[in-house]
Structure formats: C-alpha cells, structure tokens
Amino acid sequence: MSQSFDEISAQLRKRHRQSARLKWMSLGALLLALAFLVVFFADMLGKGLPAFQQAQVQVEVDYSEQASQLPLAAVDEEVRDLVSRGWLRTLPMQMRDNPELLGTTRTEWVLADGQVDQYLKGHASRLRDDAKARVDRLVEEGRAELKFNTTFFSRGDSKMPELAGIMSAAMGTVMTMLVTLAVAFPIGVMTAVYLEEFAPDNRFTQMIEININNLAAIPSILFGLLGLAIFIQFFGMPRSSPLVGGMTLALMTLPIIIISTRTALRSVPDSIRHAAFGVGCSRWQVVRDHVLPLAMPGIMTGSIIGLAQAMGETAPLIIVGMVAFIPDVSATFTNAATVLPAQIFTWSGEPDRAFVEKTAGGILVLLSVLIFLNATAVVLRKKFERRW
Amino acid sequence: MNMQTAPRASHPAGKPEVGQPHTRNESACHDLSIRVRDLNLWYGESQALKGLDIDIFQKNVTALIGPSGCGKSTFLRCLNRMNDLIPGVRIRGLVEMDGRDVNAAKMDEVALRRRVGMVFQKPNPFPKSIYENVAYAPRMHDMVSRKPEQDDLVEKALRDAGLWEEVKDKLQQPGTSLSGGQQQRLCIARAIAVQPDVILMDEPTSALDPISTATIEDLMDKLKSQFTIITVTHNMQQAARVADYTAFFHLGEIIEYNDTKTMFSNPATRKAEDYITGRYG
C-alpha cells in the first residue's frame, strides 16, 4: 500500500525543520566570524589611523651660535615645552650639516611634543592646564595642527613616541625575508623535486615525507630554540641579526615550500612527462624544461604564503634576540635588527599612552603587507590556473 | 640482420619459426628492425607479457591488436623502455635493435628513445608554441646549431606530418590551441623531428574524430617510407587499412603474427579468427 503525498509530507516535516535549523546555525557561525573581523578591523583602524598623523607646531627657530651648544635656546621660551625634545636634540647636527643655517632665524613647522600630540588627538595628556591653553591658542592661530606623520615611516624606534617609526623594523623584515627566501626557496624546491621526481617510493622516502608534514605542525617557538642552539651557540653567528633570524624562519618556512611545491609538481599531468621522455629527455631535462615551468605558479603561490607566514612570526625571533630596541636601520645582515611583529610587540609593552597608537599603526602596516602578499598569491593562482 | 629476405610460404596449420610472421607480405621489404625473444614482463607479481617472440620489419607498419589488457601497449612501451618509469616493473628477455640489447645496463635509455620515438593515445603537445614543440627536441639533442637550420628542420618535420600548410602562419601560437587531430599530427612532427628509426604509436587515433583518424592513417602510410611504424589499435578496420603486418595479442601472449592481408582473410588460429570476426574483444 503506497502512502499519499500528505502522509509523506507529514513525515518529512521534521527532517525539513532539522535542515533549516542547521542552515541557520551555520549562517550564524559565519555572521559571528564576520562580526569578529569587523570589530577587529574597526578597533585597529580606530586606534591605528591616528598614528599616521602627528602634531606639528609652527615656531621661530633661531639657528644661533648658542643654539648649537644648547638647542633649547633655539626656540622661544613660550613654546619650548610644546616642541619635541627629541627634535631639538637633532638641531646641532642639522646645523653642522648645513652651515648656511647659522645665524638665521626661520619660521618652521616642527614636531610637537608627544603630549601635545595626544592632547590634539583628544586623548588623555599629561600637559598642564596652562600648556593646554597655549596649545589651544596656537591651534586658533593656525600654528599647531595634525599633519601626515612622515616620521613614522622614515625613522627607527625611539623612546620618544613622536620620534618613533617603523623604518628600522621594516628594513629588518625585508632583510630577514631576503635571507629566509634565499635559504628556504632553493632548498625547499630542490627537496620537493627530488622527492617527487627522482626518489624511489620506499619506506625511507615515506618516512621523510611524514616527517616533513609533521615539521609544518611544530610550534614555531621550537624553531627559535633550534636556531639559538645551532646558529648562535654552535656556529657562533651574531645574535639578533637578520642572518640568524632569516635562517631560523627559513627552517619554519621549508616544510610549507616543500609541501606546496610537491603539490604543484604533482598537478603537472604525466602526459607531459611522457611526451618529454618520449623525445629523449633525461630525467633532469624533463624536470627543468617541462615540469618546473608548469609548476612554477603553484610553487610561487606556496612560497609567498610561506613567506607571509614567516613575516608575521614573532616567537622564534624572540628566542634569537630580534626583539630589541633598534633605533637605526641595520646596515648589514649581521648587525642587530628587529622586525615588524617584534617592533609591535616592543611597543605594546611601552607604558606611554602614545605608544598604543604606534602599536596599532604598526599592526596596520604589517596587515596591509600580509594582505598584499596573500592577494598576490591568489592572483598568481587564478591567472595561471590551468585545466588539463 | 637480414634474417629472412625471401618471401616464405604460408603456414596455415603448422607452427612457424619463432617470431616470424606465419606469412610474408610479398611487396614489402623485409629488413629486420627489432628482434624480440622470450620477452617476459611482470607488474609486481602479475605477469603481463609471457615469452613474446616477434620480428619487426623496417619501413613497414606493424599493427598490434587484441582485447583490452592483453599487453599490447605494455609491449610497445618495452621497445623504448617507457616501462622504466613505472615502479615495480620487471623485464626479462631480449629486445634487440641494431644488434644491441635495449634492456642492457650499458644501453642509455635516452639514446634509445632518440632512435625510437613515440606518439601517445591522447595528443600531448607541450604547452609551448607550435614551433617550440617541434624545435625543442632537435635542439636538446644538438642536432641543429643555427637558427635557419632549426627553421628548416621544423618546416620539414611539419611538412612530413602534413601539418605545415595549416600552421605555417601561426607557428608562435600555443600547440594546445590546435584541434585534436592537428595536435596529434603535431606530436607526430615532434617525434619525427629527431629523425628516429622507429615510431611507436599507442592508439594514436582513439581520441580523434573519423576525419582526423583518416588523415592520421594516410600519414602513417606516407611515413612508412622513412620510418618503421608500430601501432597499437583497438580498431580492426584501421589495422586492416594501414598495417603491413599484424600481431594478435591475447592475455600477454602473441597468438598470431601474420601479414595483414592473410590475418584478416585467412587467420591461422582460431582465437584470432574469433577476435577478428567480433566474437569477443
């Protein structure tokens, strides 16, 4: 006896309710994740965007003989405490480098003190009331305002927030990444080529493969300990240097590059290999002339993602001493340097309120670089995607 | 290597000499190209080829026919050692070309593959330009040193493959932009560009439409004046049309090897007859 539509529908009702419930739950999960993302970005932008602006005041700078000895004398007493002391300290140097300044008096926009900056941005400030009144007057006269913060991008770290910038950290990141890429890319790609194209499939290579996959899951701080033990303790390389940091991160990036390269090599169809073998290519020629060029987009994508991951890594670099106060751009690969995430970490520990926005600003810069790198990887993958 | 130059009489009933066709094609020339004796091949534990004996004659088309899984493609790949690429393959027996055992340790498989070219089931041009597809291998083998020389060789190979007129104005376009039949002729041009002695074709038309198939068959007929062609085919009419000799494979053995005319009109064995008349396969 068959059932009528109504009877079957009645039985189905419960099932339909269940699937609707699941659908709403998964949608809810997605919305929650999106909400986290929005809150995170709003918070970062809200805190970080002010870091790209900095208060400046227009003052008369008197490049006198006296000022080259005692920089404080260069500006009028009325605004002396509103001007960045760090900037004042650089005056003698400026005068030495530009002798024609001597004896002149110029009206210039100069960096304001960090407290003035915080006051203008509406944050809590340690300025005394009379100083606040003077700042207000300067603002009314158009002699104090927030301007684009070139210092943030052109200078290294400083204990004075108005002089602190990400330049030294950014250069440190670039140098460290160069080392990482130079070490991890060739070794990773050659390892993958050997395992995928040359090695026989036996117990030994299977063990290597399992271990490589496990390496990718090892907590990054252990790579830091490894770097400390091998590169610094054993080989005696200089600590805190981009060389050691880069090599440590290369250890961490290697498995990612190996795995993505193997995937890329495997996606090249065997028909191409057979065609190449068929015309008398040696194994190496098959790989070099045919398989590697076709796998290159995939290899590049994997390497960029690995590099982006290494770029955001802090823990192993703490161990090898790259979290340090580095006011100047490191000149060589063996000098002490710091990297962007380490700089952010350092700033986040500073007690001064002004460093909160520096921290957020640094995060924004790092995030933009990472998003740019990942977008490049996606574009590469889309552009060279090939159907066989 | 002239083992048999005189045509031999047909042996409809009796067992012929080892590896010789039961009958000889009277019009063809009969210089030996490849001699195979007691060739056995195992994939792991399972034996795919069982004691094959066959003589392949120069400048003829030899067709290998038989039901799926009978070992004809496996045998074809033995001739240029493409089976080396498959893990777990063991080979025992003699495959002799030009007086040399191709499976010997001294034999360089790259040298072998230069003399024994291959065309595959699915057209597989390199994802490079049409010109590069043909020019790559001769350049790699240092057969050409200057650009004009290379241009000439590419043109000759494409002309021999009957593709020149169709592609001469678009040599820099990717080889994969051609139609299936054109791609397969490009693969043939790529194979003949290194001037091999033998061209192996593994079901070269099975992925093609009937018109492209006819073009390739005509081409095989033309090319046999320069090359020894060994082709695997599932299509019996094709074997009848293009081949001078036909070998019938069954379960890893060569059941019958005969000149094509005799094979299709008066096969010597019952199994071959059953297969050809479509009783199984």
Please outline what is shown here:
Chain A is mainly alpha-helical.
Looking at how many chains there are and whether they match, the oligomeric state comes to heterodimer
Uncertain residue ranges of chain B? 1-15
Q: Give the strand line-up of the largest sheet of chain B.
A: 6-7-8-3-9-10
Give the chain pair forming the largest contact, with residue counts: A-B, 19 and 25 residues
Say which CATH homologous superfamily of the largest domain in chain A is assigned.
Answer: MetI-like
CATH structural architecture of the domain at 60-71 and 110-276 in chain B: 3-Layer(aba) Sandwich
Beta-strand segment tally of chain B: 10
Report on the biggest sheet of chain B: 6 strands, mixed
Number of helices of chain A: 17
Could you say what the CATH topology of the domain at 60-71 and 110-276 in chain B is called?
Rossmann fold
The strands making up the biggest β-sheet of chain A line up spatially as 2-1-3
**CATH classification, class level of the domain at 60-71 and 110-276 in chain B:** Alpha Beta
Work out the count of structural domains of chain A. 2
Region (Disordered) (chain B): 1-26
InterPro entries (chain B): AAA+_ATPase, ABC_transporter-like_ATP-bd, ABC_transporter-like_CS, P-loop_NTPase, PstB-like
GO molecular function (chain B): ATP binding; ATP hydrolysis activity; phosphate transmembrane transporter activity
Keywords (chain B): ATP-binding, Nucleotide-binding, Phosphate transport, Transport
